[in-house]
Each structure stands twice: as C-alpha cells, then as structure tokens.
Design a protein that fits this description.
It contains twelve helices and twelve strands. By secondary structure, it is an alpha/beta fold.
Length: 377
C-alpha cells in the first residue's frame, strides 16, 4: 500500500508517533531491535504492510541479514566537529547487525534508500577494499597523520566482521605504517585482534573504548539484541587491559529513567576489570530515530515510556533532540547537570579522571605507493 509521507501531529508524550498497526510482527522481526521499517525521509512514497483479509501476512518472510559488497572510492572520513575527539575515522561497514534501537547512525541508512528501522540492521554493506584504499591514502604525498577512529558510525566488530575481517585488515595496514588508532565497539570480538593491538599499544599507537550501556541482561537484550552481553563486554575489558592495551568504557547512551541509575555500578565494574577512563553520551534522537526509539520504548517499557520522553525533552529545551554542538551529547538543564556531576564524582572516586598521554604520531612511516620507489636507506 502506498501513502503520503506526511504524518498527522500527535501528542509529543504519546507512546509512538506511528500507528501501532504499522509495526512489523514479532515473528518477522524476531531478534531485531526496531519494531517497524518505515520509509526514510528521502522517499516520495511511504509503504506499510497490512492484512487485506486474504491471509497473506503469514506468508511473509522474516527479516534476514543481507550483505552487499560495496567497493568504496575513499575510506578515511574527516570531521571538524568541536565536540568529537577525533578528526579522522573509518567505517568498514554500513548498517549494523547489532540492532541497537538507540543508534544515532540509523538515519544515515536513508541516504541509501533504506529505512532507519529494520533495514538498518538487516541490509548491510561491506567495504571489502577498505585496507587497500587505506594504504593508498596513507601513502599519498602530504598526508599528515592524526589518530584514526574505528567505529565512529557503525560497529567495526559487528557479527559479519567474523566473515569479512575488514577491520583486522585495516589494523594490519595501520600497524605496518605505525599509525595511531582508537577503536569504539560493544563487541567482544575485539579480543580476536589482541595480537595486533598489543604490539601497537606497546608503542603508544592503540587504545580501545568498550561501550557498556547497562549491566542488566534483560535491558541489554531488548536494546542491543545482537550485541555481546554485558558480562562478555566486561570480560573483553579485562582481556585487553591484561595485554597492556589502554581501555576506557563508554556509558553510551544514557537514557533517563532507564539506565541512568546504573552509572556508578557500570563504572565500578569497569574499573575493577581494568578500565582506566570513561565517557558518556546522552541519548540522541535525530531525524527518523525518534520514531524508531519511541516505538521500541512503548513496546518494551510501556509503564515508563512517557516519563523517559518527558525527562529527555527537559534536557533538550522541550524537544526530542537538539543538534547544537556542545549540547547534543550532554543536554542541558538540572537533570543533565545531575548526570554530569554524578559521572564526574564517580570518575574522581575511582581515579579514572586522569588524562592519558595522546597516541603517538611521530612513528608514522608512510606505506610505499603501488608502483612507487622503495627508500634506499
């Protein structure tokens, strides 16, 4: 069925801005995060599934993971955002099978003509030539090294990395070039690459941040259905730090009235496992994500959905989200200040507020470009 893309205005504290009958049935989305698959903002038509009385809905297939090989034209992304700690990043994949319902990267899938809902976690793209492109970009004359972040948009260690191994190939290029790298992931698969990361960390070239959103397995399974369990992530922290790799923990996102009560417990547990630093990000709901999250919230936590939304809006000047630099990640107002203070005091109590030295840039050795001249000395 086709319908106009415009939607009627509804109560901002309603369970969802989308009619419940437009949600995909549990049998088709089992093990996924999003409840629907609405068309993105660039589509001129909106499609939805409904029962026409001919009992055809039962014949629809479940959403399965589909991977498309996507040869990239360039691989290093650059940004000048003042509230982001890195200027360069690499995303080996588009979309993410982890299915985290809160993921701020979901709206980026709409650029591909997909939905920010179930498409984001089932229609994936693998940049299989990433390592080759990276080596060429590092070899370019005039390249100035600065730390590269892996995992800025989608997780570099999502399940399909076991098959495609693109992230590992990227690390191999960076190690050969003695180029610094920072990794952000919520996957225990990162321990597979301890051999590379340990060698790089010993030279001041690598660090890892593990995202720990909650220690509650029930909440984690609902929010992040195909990500590693909380105990597995803490175990990864322990394994990495035991190998001498600097590890911090990202409590991200903090969702008021859902996981903000766990801030201190997460930091205590991470510190005991060896983490030496931590950061946090308040829940962000840009563009299509606000509908995806509200649908999930109304489905999983109907008793507190309106309270969560009310608190979140209180930290964004009455809106679901404010994209302004300096505010989008931490919010403002009394509740946001309380979260910031609690986080700061917990870090101080645990001694996790000490600044670590930056990753080294002076060891960088440009790769030899294909067909180029090897150095004589």
């Amino acid at each position: 069925m086709k319908a106009p893309t415009s939607r009627p205005k509804m109560n901002p504290l309603a369970k969802s801005e989308t009619a419940p009958e437009s949600e995909v049935g549990e049998d088709r989305r089992h093990g996924r995060g999003a409840r629907s698959n609405h068309s993105g903002r660039f589509e001129s038509e909106r499609r939805m599934t409904y029962d026409d009385g001919w009992e055809t809905l039962g014949e629809l297939d479940a959403f399965r993971t589909e991977v498309t090989v996507e040869p990239a034209r360039s691989i290093i992304s650059r940004n000048k955002s003042p509230d982001i700690s890195f200027g360069q990043s690499i995303n080996p994949y588009r979309g993410c099978e982890h299915g985290c319902v809160y993921c701020y990267a979901r709206p980026s899938h709409c650029y591909l003509g997909h939905s920010a809902g179930l498409d984001f976690e089932t229609k994936l793209y693998a940049k299989t030539n990433a390592a080759e492109l990276l080596e060429a970009e590092l070899a370019r004359k005039g390249y100035v090294p600065s730390s590269i972040a892996l995992g800025a948009n989608t997780d570099p260690y999502q399940p399909i990395e076991r098959t495609y191994r693109i992230t590992r190939a990227i690390l191999e290029v960076l190690e050969r070039a003695s180029h610094p790298v920072g990794i952000v992931t919520k996957s225990a698969l990162v321990v597979r690459d301890i051999d590379i990361l340990e060698r790089m960390a010993a030279r001041g070239l690598a660090k890892v941040a593990i995202s720990v959103t909650t220690l509650d397995r029930r909440i984690a399974r609902a929010m992040e259905p195909r990500a590693a369990t909380p105990p597995k992530r803490i175990e990864a922290v322990r394994s990495l730090t035991s190998a001498g790799i600097p590890v911090s923990v990202m409590v991200a996102p903090i969702i008021p009235a859902l996981n903000d009560c766990e801030i201190e417990r997460i930091l205590d547990t991470a510190h005991e496992a060896g983490a030496t630093g931590a950061g946090y990000v308040l829940l962000r709901l840009p563009l299509e994500l606000k509908d995806v999250f509200r649908e999930w919230l109304a489905s999983e936590f109907p008793d507190r959905a309106s309270h969560v939304v009310s608190l979140l809006r209180s930290m964004h000047g009455g809106q679901d989200y404010v994209a302004a630099f300096g505010e989008r990640q931490t919010g403002r107002g009394p509740y946001a200040q309380q979260i910031a203070l609690r986080f700061r005091l917990a870090l101080k109590r645990l001694g996790m507020d000490q600044r670590r030295p930056p990753l080294r840039l002076d060891l960088f050795t440009p790769p030899v470009a294909k067909g180029g001249q090897m150095p004589l000395l």
